[in-house]
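Reply to dn_fold:

You asked what the input looked like. This is it:
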Amino acid sequence: MTPQLGSVVLVPVASPQTVAAVHDYVKAWQNAEVNIAKAKVKRDNHEQLTKADVKWLHSYDKHNYADYFRTHSIGRVHGQEVFMNWNGENRNKNEYEYFDMPKYNEQDGFTNSYGYNVLRDMVDQINTVIQEQKKIGGPMTDEEASALEDSILDIMAHDQEHVNNDELRHYMNDTIWFAAKQTVKNKASEEPVAGEDHEVDLRAAIAKAPAADQPQSRRVNLREAISK
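and this is what came back:
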């Protein structure tokens, strides 16, 4: 059901685009964990590793799905903070045209803009869930992946109940959509591509070559064999 406030139709949180991005993010993470686990078993059993296996084993050398998401989501919040001229965790007094925002003090803490608080609180809750998933090895099964998706979307659904500003609801979607899409994009560059370990059956390729009475054509096109 599309959320409404009186006669005003509000932007749904999470939007269909954000739901799809979260799904792709979680499934990509699950796929990575499964393939890394398989590669580790082969390595521990002293089996020969393929190029893809080696790439999977090294895909977490620098970054992982949880930390990438945290970086991109928090970065997006701070981007909105600058773009919207919000007050967020300022250590110094901020002077605006019609009012001042006080600096941090031990008794009151930070004085943040409402929009910043909404986005940062949502992002912090989601990152807590994702970091907990990371601690147990990521989503390894379909059930774990589905539960993680639901947890992320439940946080967004709960937070949106208290936000009736359409523009801010859009930023709630945009923050999580961007973090999910950018994480998948970043990790894709660190993981094997489909078919990277395609094996060429030379015996079959030779058998399909022209008959012996055509010696000038008795050659195997390796490029063609590899592409099949």
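Confidence is low (pLDDT under 50) at residues 96-100.
Hope that clears it up.
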